Amino acid sequence: MPQNHPTPASAAPRASETPEQSTDEVSLLNHLGEMAVFARVLEAGSFSAAARQLALSTSAVSKQIGRLEHALGVRLLNRSTRALSLTDAGRAVHTHCAQLVAAANSARDAAKGQGAAPAGRLRISAPIAYGTQHIAAALPGFLARYPQIEVELVLLDRAVDAQAEGFDLIIQHSAPGDGSLVSRPLAASETVVCAAPAYLAQRDRPGQPEELAAHNCLRESHAHSELWRFIPRHDAGKTDVQTIRVSGNYRVNSHAAIVAAALAGIGIARLPRRCVADELAKGSLCELLPNWRTPDVPAYAVGPAFEARPPFAAERSSGAAIRAFIEHLLAYDAAQAQIMAAATTEAPIAPDVPGAPGTPADTSKPAHDGRAFVRPSWMGW
C-alpha cells in the first residue's frame, strides 16, 4: 500500500505566503543571471559591447534579455540599429538589477576581504580646482597606506557620466539627481569674499553685502553665479539672510583663474577658503565683510549604485578600495578643518582705510564662524 511521505520543511511554503508566491520567488531566482546581464548591457551601451565584456556571443546576450523580458512580462529595451533606449519599465527594473549586482559585489568583497588589505583600481573624477588643491594633496598619504590600490585621478570642470566614462567615483559639488547613483557627503568648503590690496586702493571697501552691487565681481560661469548669498555671523546683531545680485566683466569656469584675476586686482572674488588660504595668509588677498559669511560649498562622493565591473570580472575596483578612499578623505578633511580654523584667525582682513596694505585680523571679531567639523554618516558605501 503506498505511503504518503511528508513534504520536506525546506520545500513547504512559509505560513505568511501562498504556494503561488513561493513559486514566483523560485522562478525569479532563476533569472538573477539575466538581470546581471541586463545591468551590464546598460553599462556597456550595446549588446555587442556587453557580449565582449562578458565573453559571450551577441546573440546569447540578446536571448538572455529576451528571456528576462518574457519572465517579467514587460519590454525593457527599445531596440534600433543605432542605439538602445530604456522603456519606462526598463528604467525601473534597471535600478533594482543594478542593486542586485552591487549586493553580489559586496558579498564577494566581504568573503575575500576578511583580513585582506584593500586593493584594486580606482578611477576618480573631480573638478580641476578641488582635485588639484584637495584630492591631489590627500592622495600621497592614501597611496602610502594602501600600496595595492592603483588610482587614476581625472580633473574635469564639466558634468561627468560615471557609467559611460568608466569612473568608480566622482567628486562633485552637487548631490546627484540620477536614481542610479548613490552619494556620500564630504566636508563642505567654507567660502570667503576677498580682493587684492591693489583693487581696494582704487575702490571703496564694501562694508555691507549690498555694497557689492557697485563693484566688479569675478564670477564662475554657471547658472545663478550672479546671486551671492550672505549669512550674518553670530556677533553681527542680525538674523536675516541677504541675496545680492552682483555683476562684473569676467566670468570663468575655473577657481584657479578667478584667484589669478583677483590677485591681478581685477575685482572681488568669492572662493572656497582652501583656494586662497596662502594668499590670505601672505596678505596678497584681503578678506572682506568679516561680519558676514557665505554658504559653504558642499562636496559629494558619487558613484554608480553598482560597481564599475560585474561580479565575475577580476579587473574591477573593489568596494573596499572605494570605502578606504572615502574614509581617508574624511580623515584628511577633518585634519585640514582644524588647520584652517587656526589659520583663519591670522588671515588679514581688508583695513578700514582704502588702499592701506593688509593688516592682521582683529581677533575680537571671528574670522570664521567657528563651526566644528562633523563627520557625516554613511549614505552609500
CATH class identity of the largest domain: Alpha Beta
Q: What is CATH's topology name of the largest domain?
A: D-Maltodextrin-Binding Protein, domain 2
Helix content: 25-40%
Rounded to the nearest angstrom, the radius of gyration is 27 Å
Class by alpha and beta content: alpha/beta
Report the uncertain regions. 5-17, 306-315, 346-381
- CATH architecture descriptor of the largest domain: 3-Layer(aba) Sandwich
Order of helices and strands: HHHHEEHEHEHEEHEEEEHEHEEH
Domain count = 3
Distance between the termini: 60 Å
The gross shape turns out to be elongated
The DSSP helix count reads: 11
Strand portion: 15-25%
The overall strand count is: 13
Overall average residue pLDDT: 77
Describe this structure in words.
The protein is α/β, with parallel strands linked by helices and 381 residues long. It folds into 3 domains: 28-112, Arc Repressor Mutant, subunit A, CATH 1.10.10; 120-189 and 299-336, D-Maltodextrin-Binding Protein, domain 2, CATH 3.40.190.10; 195-295, D-Maltodextrin-Binding Protein, domain 2 (3-Layer(aba) Sandwich), CATH 3.40.190.290. The chain has 11 helices and 13 strands. The strands form 2 sheets. Strands 3, 4, 5, 6, 7, 8, 9, 10, 11, 12 and 13 form an 11-stranded mixed β-sheet that branches. Strands 1-2 form a two-stranded antiparallel ribbon. The longest helix is centred in the C-terminal third of the chain and has 26 residues, at 319-344. The chain is elongated and about 75 Å long.
